[in-house]
Amino acid sequence: MNKLITRVCEATGLDEATAQTAIGHVLRFMLDHAGESNVAEFVGKIPGAHQAIEAAAATGDAGVTAAIGVVKGALGFGKIDMNILGGKLGNLGLSEKQMRALLKEVFAYAESLVGKAAVATITDAMPHLSQFMGKTA
User: Fold this and answer.
1) pLDDT at residue 18, rounded to an integer
2) Which of 7, 56, 86, 87 is positioned for an S-S bond with 64, CB 3.0–4.6 A?
3) What are the per-10-residue average pLDDT scores of the chain (137 residues)?
């Protein structure tokens, strides 16, 4: 986890505690939304990942999930879920530019651990995330 935190801090300018919490939110999002992809393998290869996920969950999101969750039934998942993740990261003080840098570093790190093909299955399962990162889905 320390390598990933360092990469994220360098790319975003975040302090270590904020970076760890932000990474935890991203990893939880990936586990919840990537279906039967290679996320569990990736998360399992990061020492301390589960603790970061638990710590992120403990931070709450100031009601963002509940407020956005109300419209999920009518509008469906995908982009709405990205708004929830964005809200959680925004509550940590991340700008959109920092969010993109965070996601790019998490996926680059994933690629170094599980390979490009495995990461492709993760991003393919979450097209709105890929679009947010500036990739086409």
Assistant:
1) 95
2) 87
3) 96 96 93 80 91 85 47 48 84 93 94 92 79 56
**Any idea where the domains of the chain sit in the sequence?**
2-132
- Whether the CB-CB separation of 9 and 94 falls below 8 Å is answered with no
Residue 134's pLDDT is what?
62
pLDDT of 99:
93
Identify whether the C-beta of residue 47 lies closer than 8 Å to the C-beta of residue 1: yes
